[in-house]
Design brief:
The chain is built from four helices and two strands, in the order ααββαα. The protein is globular, with a radius of gyration of 17 Å. It has a two-stranded parallel ribbon.
Length: 119
């Protein structure tokens, strides 16, 4: 979980600022990302951030591309469910504190959520 950013900061901008691609490569990891991260990882030979395919009016997706999008969505679903679960913590709806404290609170809630799910 990264540090706080203004709400208007786009996901890909935050990822670039935090050097996510370099950190993933250094750790030998990869990531599944939504279409908001298209173009983040421009290294075609050693790509670590996998995004789906975007359709346009001029170019429709092939059957293979649609299948790939479904597989990526299925892999991302548990993460999205985790974010949704964090939003059920009532304290987050009433939070009126500095962004730095909010980040620490979210990290603590993430630990509590993982403990709750492990039972």
């Amino acid at each position: 979980m990264s540090g706080p950013r203004p709400g208007r900061t786009h996901d890909i901008t935050a990822a670039r600022h935090d050097h996510i691609v370099e950190h993933l490569k250094a750790a030998g990891l990869g990531a599944l990302a939504d279409l908001g991260f298209l173009g983040l990882d421009k290294d075609c030979n050693n790509q670590v951030v996998v995004t789906g395919y975007k359709t346009t009016r001029a170019r429709k997706l092939t059957t293979g591309q649609k299948t790939a999008n479904r597989i990526i969505a299925a892999g991302r679903a548990p993460v999205e469910h985790g974010f949704a679960h964090l939003k059920t913590w009532r304290i987050l709806t009433k939070l009126r504190t500095s962004p730095a404290r909010a980040t620490n609170l979210l990290r603590a809630l993430l630990v509590l959520t993982n403990l709750e799910l492990d039972r």
